[in-house]
Design goal:
The complex is a heterodimer of chains A (about 425) and B (about 375). Chain A is α+β, with helices and mostly antiparallel strands. Chain A is built from 13 helices and 13 strands. Classes of the chains: A alpha+beta (about 425), B alpha+beta (about 375).
Chain lengths: ~425, ~375
């Protein structure tokens, strides 16, 4: 019986090639776009190499010193002394690390110009992150205490600076006029992971600007690792209780009287704290409403299209339904056939979509638009999207067919 | 004729409802995309007011805050740069160099009116380096600063925003409350964030000792080798400095890409959606027309020409589209009326016009082939089938 249904389905699909193409195109294009967009989303926000503990980490990225009267504001990352005083002393977290915002520098090794991103960090940074070391190992407190000039580089920098495939351990690299000994080579990560990505990592004591800087503002982010995800709210509570009591500095005419600080999950630190000032709740809500409305509009279009096409196709097949009814087919047999037709068409569309998006992601990963890009298909999303398109297919294809199959055969035959 | 079509469609409004809904949603999407395109294109077509050709930037950091040291370092760098033949002109500038990622805003006040503006702290030779020309007054020089006078040069946009119709040259404006500034010059445009930046407020002030990034206009002979030498020689002045050389045209390209890539992605996605809708409409129309053979037969039998039948079906599709557009127009017009976004209203007018035009073009395109099929039907065959 099933084989019979399959045969009918394929015959119908081949008979009306145009309709089959339109439906398939709609399903597969929409699904592909959805798959690719979620792949980008995952790439940006999920737990990924090397931030293997992102789900139980909090990120402090910005301080805002506000002068309420004039509305003036100083905004930026923190200094090491601020992090040591107020974040490293928190009791609830397991570990607290810091790393600087990425800086760029040119180095003219091997007769060509290399533009490198470099970052300063503390030893804890290497304990929290899951970097894969291809050569050597991370620096520890010992190197910092002994004031050693050392660096950790990624594999791409090794290949560009020292030559492809050559070991770099123990060799020196010139950065900012300093000669640094390479003590480790890590597998690199894409630049989109802002907190961790760099070509060269240096211990913080090598920083040229006075490391005893007592200002709050500096060029560092803090990464706070919790023992478990459940501890995150407790850590935020502890920190936000301290923040209002932190003494504020004055800068000549500018006398701030309020401090806003953030300690957020990765998504929040990237989306909210970058685009919105702390406490700008309404703007944020409006932004999200706007985005969701646009997405809804986007998704509804292919759905309406699918429903529209399906309904007019069923009308076309009213005579087929009439004849089959006249020869004794029950409503259920007819419905079963339409269900199978729809499922097959959707699955086929899904398969095309998976192939298309897998092809695109593969192309994107190796295109070098983002070094070390590692976009993959999220199978949960594929499944949900397939189920959704099935629901729309069934609603629009099977329900009218079922109603028509309840009509007397003569009516259906008349069309 | 039109009345006739309206009546027919109104009677079948339930079966045409989905098509109208589809047109409605497509209209809204096209409206958003066209408005964005018009906005972006307008900005792109506005003169930039600066040239990036053979301009290099040196992101220099002395890594100190001591004022006396800064002054000595600045003199050291000035003398060094002046001694290099390949460097035609140079200027110090603050961190917010053109096409860089930083920006700096201050509040200006004139006769009680307050306006936010970008502040550029720059040197005397800044216009020479960037090929800027002034439309009124002149650039500030050392002579302007005698007697505690603090000269500024402002953009035309800022003059309009802050001073209104008043003649800008010689006006006193105050910065952050009370520090008085005198306007000595006006530039027409200075769009320094990307080629797609909206014309905006900006003013220039003489750089202080803490503004020590460099902008260089280099000669035609400046190549990668020269760049390496320059970096090396600057580093030799003091090993504690951080130095990074970039080319302004490349910085501009980077900024442009950051604006363009999301727009391109949006275009591709919308393009597929609209194509999808077009295909869907085509299918549905094809289906509808083949079900109305009898009607076509009668029309032909009572004397309608082929062209009239074709025109009728295209007209019918256009009327359905108009219903969808009408509803979409009602929603789209709310955006300029309610001032949801701070953009010129004419952009929305263009957005609506272009969206209406493209919807009509798409529907005509989709209706053309099925309508021709309908017109080709012989009345005898059609009526016989019936």
């Amino acid at each position: 019986m099933l084989k019979n249904y399959l045969k009918i389905t394929i015959t119908v699909m081949r008979r009306r090639k145009m309709f089959t193409f339109i439906t398939l195109f709609g399903i597969s294009m929409t699904l592909s776009i959805l798959i690719v967009l979620t792949a980008f989303y995952e790439h940006l926000f999920s737990t990924n190499y090397p931030e293997i503990h992102r789900d139980r980490s909090l990120y402090a990225t910005v301080l805002e010193e506000v002068e309420s009267e004039s509305g003036g504001m100083r905004r930026g990352p923190m200094s090491i002394s601020y992090i040591n005083k107020y974040l490293k002393t928190l009791k609830t977290p397991e570990k607290v690390a810091f790393a600087s915002i990425p800086n760029t520098v040119n180095t003219y090794g091997n007769g060509k110009k290399l533009k490198l991103f470099f970052k300063y960090s503390d030893p804890v940074f290497w304990e929290i992150m899951g970097f894969e070391f291809l050569e050597g190992k991370a620096f520890t407190q010992r190197e910092i205490d002994n004031n050693e000039s050392v660096a950790i580089i990624n594999d791409q920098t090794r290949d560009d600076y020292f030559g492809k495939g050559l070991p770099a351990l123990g060799k020196t690299i010139e950065i900012n006029g300093q000669n640094l000994r390479v003590i480790g080579v890590v597998r690199g990560c894409p630049i989109t992971r802002m907190v961790v990505a760099a070509d060269v990592y240096l211990p913080y004591h090598l920083q040229k600007r006075d490391p005893n800087n007592q200002d709050m503002n500096g060029s560092y982010y803090a990464i706070v690792l919790a023992r478990s995800e459940a501890d995150l709210p407790a850590i935020q509570r502890e920190y936000f209780e301290i923040v209002p009591r932190i003494p504020l500095q004055t800068y000549g005419e500018f006398k701030p009287d309020r401090l806003n600080a953030n300690l957020s999950t990765y998504f929040d630190s990237l989306v909210q704290d970058t685009f919105f000032r702390t406490g700008e709740g309404s703007a944020r809500t409006r932004f999200y409403i706007f985005i969701s409305l646009f997405a809804l509009l986007f998704m509804s279009l292919p759905a309406i299209n699918l429903v529209n096409i399906n309904i007019s196709r069923i009308l076309e097949r009213s005579s087929e339904i009439g004849i089959r009814k006249a020869f004794g087919a029950s409503s259920w047999t007819l419905v079963a056939q339409f269900v199978i037709e729809n499922v097959l068409l959707t699955l086929f569309g899904g398969l095309v979509a998976i192939l298309l998006s897998a092809g695109f992601l593969w192309w994107f990963n190796q295109s070098g638009l983002i070094d070390y890009a590692d976009l993959t298909i999220n199978w949960t999303v594929v499944l949900v999207a397939l189920v959704l398109s099935l629901v729309f297919g069934l609603m629009s294809g099977v329900y009218p067919a079922w109603r028509m199959s309840r009509l007397p055969a003569v009516e259906a035959l008349k069309g | 004729m039109l009345q006739h079509i309206f009546k027919l469609i109104w009677k079948k409004k339930r079966s045409n409802f989905l098509m109208m809904l589809e047109i409605f949603v497509s209209f809204l999407i096209l409206f958003a995309v066209w408005s964005l395109s018009v906005y972006t294109y307008r900005n792109y077509a506005t003169p930039a007011g600066l040239s990036t050709e053979r301009v290099w930037t040196v992101f220099l950091n002395y890594n100190t805050d001591q004022d006396s040291v800064l002054r000595i370092n600045n003199e050291l760098v000035t003398r060094h740069v002046q001694s290099i033949r390949e460097i035609k002109s140079f200027s110090f500038a603050a961190n917010n160099l053109p096409f860089s990622f930083s920006s700096s805003n201050r509040e200006l006040e004139f006769k009680g009116k307050k306006v936010l503006s970008e502040i550029m702290l720059v040197g005397e030779d800044y216009p020479a380096v960037l090929g800027m020309s002034l439309s009124a007054g002149q650039w500030f020089s050392a002579a302007d600063t005698v007697g505690g006078r603090r000269p500024v040069v402002i953009t035309r946009h800022l003059a309009r925003d802050l001073l209104g119709a008043e003649e800008p040259i010689g006006q006193q404006i105050s910065l952050d409350g009370d520090e008085k500034r005198t306007v000595v010059g006006v530039v027409d445009y200075f769009r320094h964030k990307s080629s797609f930046q909206e014309d905006d407020n900006c003013f220039f002030e003489p750089a202080g000792s803490a503004d020590y990034n460099l902008l260089l206009q280099v000669g035609t002979g400046a190549n990668a080798e020269f760049e390496a030498q320059l970096a090396h020689s600057l580093q030799q002045l003091n090993p504690d400095w951080t130095i990074e050389i970039q080319h302004l045209d490349q910085m501009k390209d980077t900024q442009n890409q950051l604006v363009l890539i999301p727009i391109l992605i949006l275009f591709v996605v919308c393009g597929f959606l609209v194509f999808n809708v077009g295909l869907g409409l085509f299918g549905v129309l094809f289906q509808n027309i083949s079900r109305r053979k009898g009607e076509i037969g009668i029309r032909r039998a009572v004397g309608a020409t082929k062209m009239q039948v074709m025109g009728y079906f295209i007209g019918e599709t256009l009327v359905i589209a108009s219903f969808g557009i009408g509803l979409g127009f009602f929603f789209a017009i709310q955006i300029p009326l309610l001032h949801v976004l701070d953009v010129e209203a004419s952009i929305y007018v263009w957005g609506i016009l272009l969206a209406v035009l493209s919807i009509y073009l798409i529907t005509i395109g989709c209706a053309f082939y099925p309508s021709r099929q309908a017109a080709a039907i012989y009345p005898a065959t059609a009526l016989h089938e019936e």
